[in-house]
Amino acid sequence: MRFILAAIAFLGSAALLVVGWLQVTEARAADSVEASGTLTQESPLLVIPSDTLIEHAGTQTITISGDGPIRVAIGRQADIAGWVGTTQHEIVTLDDTSGALVFTPGEASADETTAPSILGNDLWFQEYEGDGELELQQTLPVGFALLVQSDGESPAPSQVSISWPLDGRAPMAGPLLLGGGVLLLISLGLLLWALLSMRRRSKPQRQAREELEPEVASEAPAVGEAATTPAFAFGRSAPSADDGLDAVDVDPVEQSQSVVAASVRLSEGNQTEPADESSAAVAADQQAVHAWAPPTADEPSRQADEPAFPSFRAPSAEAPVPVSAPAADGTPVDVDDPFSWSAPSTPSEPEAETVDDAPIAQPDAHAEAAPVAASTDEGRPEPSTKDDGDEHDDNSSDAGEPPSGGASGPSPEAPADGAPAAEPQQWRRPRGRDRSQAPKRLFRLIPVLLVGSIALTGCSADLWPEQFGGSTSAPTTPTPTSSIDQALLTEGEALPAVNAQQLTEILDDAARLAQEGDAANNPDGLKPRFTQAAYQERAAEYQAKAADNALPGPVAFPTGEVVYAVPQASDAWPKSIFVVREAGGETPTAPFGIMLTQSSARDTYKVTSIVQLTPDVTLPEAAPAEIGAPGIDGLEQPLVIAPEELAAAYADVISNGDGSQFAALFSPDGDSLRTQISEARAAVSGEIDANAARIEFQTRPTDDPPFGVQTLDGGAIVAVSIEEVEKLSARTQLATLSVQGRTAALAGASSSSLGFETLYTNQLMFYVPSEATGGAVQLLGFANTMTGARQLNANEVTYG
């Protein structure tokens, strides 16, 4: 069973190792994979979505070719979808079967067959231009796509090819190779266990099967007579004479011991001669001691001595030795153990022994040794004899085999006369080889096998899954904030309008245009980045300065660091961004609050409101710029006042002061605009002649919609604007009204018999708490600028 289990484990290990190695070979056979396709339609736009770009890991090499110019924009897929809208376009996908690029028409209007230039939009992270052919190398993460066009009027480029490098990753090769190595170790262990177990079981079975019966003489030859017959033979002996004992009653161990004793006497006769006749007579008078006879009391014991053969261990002296009756004189002895051999022995005093309480006769010590019976197996070789002086090389590895030749032990010389004879137990056949070194040799193999299996699995992270520390298949250099974008996409949340890099680029571009407009005193260059009240303020400043160069210009656009940013997170337009940026000039001033808006995906972000924050203002907590916040058009809970009503309510407070019905909604702390307007109106009213002219004040909201973003506590930062109208009219036809400065510059006249109307625009930034939180509306900052002045018409004047 162990052999079967070892074979099964080996086959399993071979299968795992082969499959793992094939995966490694296949993964490293090619260095890239490429997909290409040809556009047959005449759409002006091509969209390569994120799923196509991240079909394989690594850097994407995109090659686009066609006739004419080629423009490519990289942005988030939702932004590209918003920009494309219903314009005719083709979506590039990867066919799973053929591996080629396929062009599928997207949902579009049949009338929109052209598109404006995709370059210069704030949504894109990168833009590229080429002519005829354009090659890009990008590492775009999930959620990013490519938008391709020619010139917007002509069809998009027709040839697209995308290639990805193969990093040699085989994430299952490591576990397969490791599993194969483990199974290989298990199979080797089972095989070794089976071999050892079979060897232990085969010893008694082999001894039982072998029925070699060598005949050994029971007595030593006469003194001086050379022994020419080997002390033992490996052939089958002739049937023994009837000695009164059945074959089944004879113990093989007892027979082996008797053979050993006889061989010792025979070897002693061959190797030694008595020095004189008296010594020979003494030796002849001594009786032979049989193998089953116990040692006498005065005979020195050799149990403590080393065995004759170093590779064998003598049995324990305490072990009981069964005895059996010897064969009759001159009768061959039945020997069942073919691995016994003779050893020198010294005769001792005979002692009577009994078997089953019956006395056993001792053989005559002077009887001649019977010749060894010839083997009944003719084909079995007989051992050869050596001269007394031949050396015998004992090899411990030949355990269980008798030494070749007639030598009876490792020493070729016979023991001296009178030396104590060896104990019969000492010459018993040991049970096997000396295995004292075997475990050490086995343990030496274990590290080798372990190191080999580990070497097969490899240490490369490309061969292991990511869960076990393997290398990741995600791009190594993703676009900034892509990890957060990926988390938002996973959660199904909308992405922020822009990231930090895009926001900085937008503000820098607005600052550049503002500086150019200030230098040229021309508002035309502001239109790509300014709108509504922010544009009106700067345009009025330029107009007044053009009429009177002595008038100061507009406040410089801030160029410092962005210290607070809340981009709107939404997939719909318009989108808003609230930014707080430091002035950046040499003279430290309060930072500016800027509200940016994008009315559609194809428009740029423009400054709709820019105010200087009031001193010691505390901004509410808002979401990080990488996550963004919802806009005010999707409030989860109502505010203390609706954003659409905010401008009108504050205008009523300016007009009526504490008597306004909305006065309790607005906090007076930090609101210096109320005081400033109240003081200016009082000063103007005191300067005119009440009998010749009258002055009227009106505060109203503008037509600009509110923009804003939500805060973490459910409130919102809202930007609105209001207008102050100051009307100065004559009460009599004889009156002449005069103005100066910015009013005269904007009105184009310094005096009038009818009067003047002056317009002030106030850009306001509020924090509006939610109803659940409660509290008063706080003014964060404002900008008050005269944006217009004109002479009154006759129908606008009432005399009296």
UniProtKB/TrEMBL annotation:
Keywords: Membrane, Transmembrane, Transmembrane helix
Location of the region described as Disordered in the Swiss-Prot/TrEMBL record: 205-224, 264-438
Compositionally biased region (Low complexity): 277-294, 314-328, 358-374, 397-424
Pfam families in the record: DUF8094 (PF26366)
Biased composition, class Basic and acidic residues, residue ranges: 377-389
Transmembrane stretches, start-end: 176-196, 442-464
Protein's recorded name: DUF8094 domain-containing protein
Species, as recorded: Pseudoclavibacter terrae
Domain DUF8094: 495-790
UniProt KW rRNA-binding keyword: no
